[in-house]
Design brief:
Rossmann fold; 2 domains; six-stranded mixed sheet; three-stranded antiparallel sheet; about 20% strand; about 280 residues; single chain; 9 helices; alpha/beta
Length: about 280
């Protein structure tokens, strides 16, 4: 899915009148199949950016276009279909505690199946092999029939990522997917997520607190600061000096000097047919 933002301004619905916007005005273009990491200190607007692209937060001004269409100009039914072609993975996955992991993972398919099958899947999951395969990519195959409330925080976060893998979304919007993972799992999670997006030719936009992970796994990195784009560069051009300036007001959030990007950073996936959720 192709993303275009033009002079976009986003405000939180609960923000006081006259408060500064959470994001913007900013302009941004992301090509179909591209993989982009968004970094920046707390409060920079990273989550707001994802919510705006996901059509979960209506622009206060400016324009959002997805595959060339203004989602907020669409009829309600068309907007629902558009949202169904995107997958937004929040930092804390919305997993009902008493639900089985298999059901939680297969919820990623709900926008793409009929109502009767959706209801049936709550009691008799019909795509268990797909859930098992997705969980196995995150070393969670043994948790297939476990209850969600028996999982650790990191396991729940990986279940949320497995849900993204079983979806048929053409746009993956992932918010801080590594926050609950131990260091041994972070590389595996990023490699799995980026590989899955490439396999289906999906666009991937991922916010990250871990700067080294952003530089190592994404060809393009956007730095947000106070709701504005501080830089939008190939990972190889994101220097320690740029990072120190980006985190100048929050130096404790920048974990040591940034390593050089890995030489094998994959290129963006080639364009495929445009779609969106």
């Amino acid at each position: 899915m192709k993303i275009e933002l033009q002079d976009l301004v986003l405000r939180h619905p609960a923000a006081a009148r006259g408060a500064a916007p959470a994001l913007g005005p900013l302009g941004l273009r992301i090509a179909e199949g591209e993989q982009v990491a968004v970094i920046g200190p707390s409060g920079a607007g990273k989550t707001s950016l994802l919510l705006g692209i996901a059509c979960a937060l209506r622009p206060a001004s400016g324009q959002l276009r997805l595959d060339g269409a203004d989602p907020w100009a669409l009829p309600a039914s068309a907007l629902r279909q558009l949202r169904g072609r995107m997958f937004l993975a929040p930092q804390v996955p919305p997993l009902p505690p008493r639900q089985r992991v298999v059901t939680a993972v297969l919820a990623g398919r709900l926008p793409h199946i009929g109502l009767l099958e959706s209801l049936r899947s709550l009691f008799y999951p019909s795509a268990i092999p797909a859930a098992d395969t997705a969980l196995a990519r995150f070393d969670l195959a043994d948790k297939l029939f476990e209850r969600v409330d028996r999982l650790s925080g990191g396991e729940r976060q990986r279940v949320g990522l497995a849900r993204a893998l079983v979806s048929q979304a053409r746009l993956l919007l992932v918010d801080e997917p590594l926050s609950a993972l131990d260091p041994a799992r972070t590389t595996q999670a990023m490699e799995t997520l980026t590989a899955a997006a490439r396999e289906r030719g999906a666009t991937l936009v991922c916010t990250l607190h871990q700067v080294p992970m952003a530089l190592r796994h994404f060809p393009r990195v956007i730095g947000l600061q106070d709701g504005q784009i501080a830089f939008d560069l190939p990972a190889a051009e994101v220097t320690p000096e740029r990072l120190r300036a980006l985190y100048a007001q929050h130096p404790d959030e920048l974990d040591g000097p940034a390593p050089a990007p890995a030489a094998e950073v994959p290129a963006a996936a080639p364009p495929v047919a445009m779609q969106c959720r």
